[in-house]
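G., before I forget:
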Amino acid sequence: MSRKRNRRASGGRQASDASAAGESSYVCDACGEQIVIPVDPSQGSEQEYVEDCPVCCRPNVIHVEIDEEGESRVWAERE
Ligand SMILES: [Zn+2]
């Protein structure tokens, strides 16, 4: 038996990279378009800022949550 060590931490996380790290998306509350935005984990695990929708130019309050596994969740609210 050979001893194989996984270099990646295995904590029940699935080895799929559905979305590129550092990117997430939200749906604009005003026009319904899906907007892809960069997510910067160094800004904290909970972020909130206002960004104008690039499609309809209306401001959205963007909420970003990053869990301990690095999965980000982003949603928008009308300002
Ligand atoms: Zn919009």
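The longest strand covers residues 59-66. The beta strands are 23-27, 34-38, 46-52, 59-66, 72-78.

More on Monday.
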